[in-house]
């Protein structure tokens, strides 16, 4: 930081302190405050959306990977018992289906998700530091203006013996006000425009997410439906009637009777 920049920072810190103690009047622009509040909500929501969209896709990746590992284990269980059984064939079919689903996810959905959802969100969020820099600059110029106005008021209320001080203070006040007004008016005009653009900007991403979710669900249903043919037709009815629960309980009872499971 240059010496001039350091002096400005010190002066602004002093102005802030004097404003807190009521010695310098603080300029309050309600219109800007309202627009900034709306912008801050938008900024927070976009950042949350970016975080959640990444978490969602990471969860999808984790789910398909875990599904593949489960299928591999089930196939091993059934194949070790009887490779020709319907259970073994179902395990193999399930493994093949989830592998295909995982391949579909990687090949057909991963890249489109990044290009239509993740990257647009990232680009939008990348603008926030730039906008925030403009807001910070506006706030600094406001402090300069409040300080200059306070000095001018003091000289008007209590004229100095030096006749050059008042014109200099007036010039400094006018220059600070002009700079502040320019930045303030720009933000008041453009912050609403930025917010108005969010819907048309995110529309394609929202549509793409819905389409990809639907495609993944359809692919999953189509591939896993083929596995059902390896199960008896009455399995669903037995499950609804509670008979499968009784079957599982019977097997658990047989396990309990084994010595290594605590049986006598």
From TrEMBL:
Q: Which InterPro entries match?
A: AH/BAR_dom_sf, BAR_dom, BIN3/RVS161-like, Rvs161/Hob3_BAR
Q: What is its main location?
A: cytoplasm
Query: One Pfam annotation, family name?
Result: BAR
GO biological process annotations for this chain's record? actin cortical patch localization; actin filament organization; endocytosis; plasma membrane tubulation
Recorded GO MF terms: lipid binding
Annotated Gene3D superfamilies: Arfaptin homology (AH) domain/BAR domain (1.20.1270.60)
- Kindly provide the name given to this protein in its UniProt entry: BAR domain-containing protein
């Amino acid at each position: 930081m240059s010496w001039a920049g350091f002096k400005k920072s010190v002066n602004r810190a002093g102005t802030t302190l004097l404003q807190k103690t009521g010695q310098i009047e603080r300029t309050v622009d309600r219109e800007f405050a309202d627009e900034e509040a709306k912008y801050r909500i938008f900024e927070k929501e976009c950042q949350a959306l970016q975080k959640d969209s990444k978490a969602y896709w990471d969860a999808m990746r984790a789910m398909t990977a875990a599904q593949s590992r489960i299928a591999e284990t089930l196939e091993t269980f059934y194949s070790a018992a009887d490779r020709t059984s319907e259970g073994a064939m179902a395990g193999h079919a399930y493994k093949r289906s989830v592998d295909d689903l995982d391949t579909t996810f990687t090949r057909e959905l991963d890249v489109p998700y990044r290009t239509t959802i993740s990257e647009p969100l990232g680009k939008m969020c990348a603008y926030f530091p730039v906008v925030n820099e403009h807001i910070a600059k506006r706030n600094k110029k406001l402090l300069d203006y409040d300080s200059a106005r306070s000095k001018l008021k003091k000289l008007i209320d209590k004229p100095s013996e030096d006749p050059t001080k008042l014109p200099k203070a007036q010039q400094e006040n006018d220059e600070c006000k002009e700079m502040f007004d320019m930045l303030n008016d720009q933000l008041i005009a453009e912050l609403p425009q930025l917010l108005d653009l969010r819907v048309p900007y995110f529309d394609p991403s929202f549509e793409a997410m819905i389409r990809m979710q639907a495609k993944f669900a359809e692919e999953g249903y189509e591939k896993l439906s083929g596995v059902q043919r390896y199960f008896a037709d009455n399995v669903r009815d037995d499950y609804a009637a509670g008979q499968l629960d009784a079957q599982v309980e019977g097997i658990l009872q047989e396990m309990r009777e084994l010595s290594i499971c605590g049986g006598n």
